[in-house]
Amino acid sequence: MTGILAARDVPAKSKAFDLLFAGALTMFFGLISLTQEHFGGILGLMMLVPLIWRRTHPEVVFFGVSAVAVLQWLIGTPLQGGNVGLLVALYAISVYGEVRYSRIALAVGGMGVLMATSRYNTSNDWRQQATMMVSLGALVFGVWAFGERRRTRGMYVQQLEERAAQLERDRDREAKLAVSNERTRIAREIHDVVAHGLSIMIVQADGGLYAADASPEQAKKALATIGDTGRASLTEMRKMLGLLKQDAQPNEVDPNQPRPQPGVSSLPELIDNVRQTGLSVDYQVTGTPRDLPALLGLTAYRIVQEGLTNTLKHAGPGARTSVRLDFGREMLTVVVTDDGRGAGLAPGSDPGHGLIGMQQRASISGGTVNAGPKTGGGYEVVATLPYNLPAGGDQ
């Protein structure tokens, strides 16, 4: 009985309409029912007044009105205007009631047709009885079918609304994820800029301090390099930090918005800056160079930058470094090697954010990065980056 007694949530406007509708039926058909003898008027009112709750308690209303109709049949009260409440209650349960009770209501309506035909058709002509039975049956089934159609349509509209709401939630979720991914990318960019810039500045500061007494001109040159590197790094970092505003909305992240993203064409300038620190860098390009997608070019640049930064940190004085780009038929191979003491690092030590960042960048582009000590001394970073980005990759 829990399903029958549970009230539906109905808007206030609908409740007001139900009250007016039931009141109009009661005023019209109820007055007609009052002209009936015996209990006809009372029974008519009992079948019309409950229609006020036909939307909130459709099952209770239908089976209550049906019970009054059965009582009418048992005491032999003739059909009267109040019997229209049966059809209204049947329609209500087929629209607002549970499906199982709606099917039961149809069966009850069919039984009511048989009972009405047997009681109120006094003709002995079977054709008249059949006509009355078919007519009442068609009326009952038509009212029920019309209600079922409205229920189905309402469920379809509700499903469309739920689907639209789900799509909107998915869109918002994807937008937030895009913002999160963008922030992660920018954070990685900032790490690369700061780490590389600071490494150069530290090397130059140490060299300038060493040469301050013996070679003032060399010390001035080191200080100038520190200033230039600091200003360039600060300018690039400010541009990227501008994209990390906390009040930025998801739709403000435009993947087509131009950003300061270097590529392989910027590698000679990067290597020249590193050479000014005193590190010997050999730069080679093999194969046939080609135009690379922005993401792929940026990935190659950052891998070389991180490799040179690690060399400055760990290779030690006098180390020699080699950077090689091999433009193959299907992929670009980036190799950064040195002959310094970096190989002395424990293989199981923490690789740091730089190596993790290189691996993440390469994986986004569908490539791989392998880094570790070389046989015979030194350290090597090898990255393979396919030209064709994986489906769904960030362009």
UniProtKB/TrEMBL annotation:
Choose one Gene Ontology CC annotation of this protein and give it.
membrane
Q: Where are the transmembrane segments?
A: 20-53, 60-75, 126-146
Q: Which domain of life is it from?
A: Bacteria
Q: Which reaction does it catalyse?
A: ATP + protein L-histidine = ADP + protein N-phospho-L-histidine
Q: Where is the Histidine kinase/HSP90-like ATPase domain?
A: 300-387
Q: GO molecular-function annotation terms?
A: ATP binding; phosphorelay sensor kinase activity; protein dimerization activity
Please report the stretch or stretches of sequence annotated as the DUF7134 domain.
16-153
InterPro entries cross-referenced by the UniProt entry: DUF7134, HATPase_C_sf, HATPase_dom, Sensor_HK_TwoCompSys, Sig_transdc_His_kin_sub3_dim/P
Which Pfam family, any one, appears in the UniProt record? Answer: HisKA_3
Question: What are the protein's UniProt keywords?
Answer: ATP-binding, Kinase, Membrane, Nucleotide-binding, Phosphoprotein, Transferase, Transmembrane, Transmembrane helix, Two-component regulatory system
Occurrences of domain Signal transduction histidine kinase subgroup 3 dimerisation and phosphoacceptor (ranges):
182-247
- Provide the residue span(s) of the region labelled Disordered: 247-267
Per the UniProt entry, the Enzyme Commission number(s) are: 2.7.13.3
Tell me which PANTHER family the record gives: NITRATE/NITRITE SENSOR PROTEIN NARX-RELATED, NITRATE_NITRITE SENSOR PROTEIN NARQ
Q: What is this protein called?
A: histidine kinase
Organism whose genome encodes this protein? Kribbella voronezhensis
